[in-house]
Design brief:
alpha+beta, Transferase(Phosphotransferase), domain 1, binds adenosine-5'-diphosphate, binds magnesium ion
């Protein structure tokens, strides 16, 4: 990533000059893309995601919002602790590091923070990964089988071997393509010394997510035999390869 900064009175943008040299403040406003007739999708929810066709290709714009109880209090505001500690700069840089290691993640394009006194708000733009569905969608459509579960195990082991801790490993953050799987949503993610404790906790989080999405419908034994054991088997094989 060829890091470059662009600053105005309140906002600072960190971007990859090799991919999007022309990025400016307008890139972070869905209305700007709507005005150009290239806004493809906009969804509410916690994420607040927009998909648009930019000069740097199809991109996803995510506005950072707080989750849980603190959301009612702080909404999209985070306590300022310096530029490098902003959610958006940290995630953009982590994406750059992971891509450089050959891990399958979206290409980071630009990150922004906007100061509001003691607080800031933040946004991230990354390239959209085309031709994929989330693992949650695969489960819903009955396409999560032993083979796919095994591929997920291999994917997670690749990240864990590289010491990548994902703060929110759930079935919506795994994208499934015909030949490739991807991990997305690295907000609060970081590199850690590989260790069985956090790696297992990461896997358990994914298991809870699958259960919450209805993976136990055919019974826990079927889930264990058809999905979870194949996933763990491929995970262990790759981790110890
Ligand atoms: N780079 C991307 N390429 C394709 N789809 C994406 C990409 N980033 C996000 N999405 C889609 O948008 C959803 C929400 O994005 P995510 O980054 O996980 O934010 P959040 O979980 O905070 O809402 C994902 O579950 C996925 O369906
Ligand atoms: Mg997500």
């Amino acid at each position: 990533m060829q890091e470059q900064l662009r600053k105005d009175a309140k906002a600072v943008i960190l971007f990859d000059a090799a991919v999007a040299p022309q990025v400016d403040d307008r890139w972070f406003a869905p209305d700007y893309w709507r005005g150009q007739g290239v806004l493809r999708e906009q969804s509410g929810g916690r994420g607040g995601i927009a998909v648009m066709a930019t000069p740097a290709g199809e991109c996803v714009l995510r506005h950072y919002r707080r989750g849980g109880l603190i959301a009612a209090l702080l909404g999209d505001r985070y306590l300022w602790r310096g530029a490098a500690a902003t959610r958006s700069f940290a995630e953009l840089r982590l994406l750059g590091t992971l891509a450089a290691r050959g891990l399958p993640v979206p290409r980071g394009i630009a990150a922004r923070y906007v100061r509001h006194g003691l607080f800031y708000s933040a946004d991230l733009i990354m390239q959209r990964i085309d031709g994929t569905r989330t693992l949650a969608e695969c489960l819903r459509d009955g396409q999560l089988n032993s083979a796919l579960a095994g591929r997920v195990g291999t994917l997670l082991a690749d990240f864990h071997r590289a010491g990548v801790w994902h703060a929110d490993l759930n079935a919506h953050n795994i994208l499934v393509g015909d030949d490739q799987l991807y991990l997305i949503d690295f907000d609060r993610g970081r590199l850690r010394q590989p260790a069985a404790g956090w790696q297992r906790a990461n896997l358990q989080r994914l298991r809870r997510s699958l259960v919450k999405l209805g993976a136990l419908q055919a019974g826990e034994q079927v889930f264990e035999r058809e999905l979870w054991q194949p996933l763990i088997l491929q995970y262990e094989r790759t981790l110890n390869a």
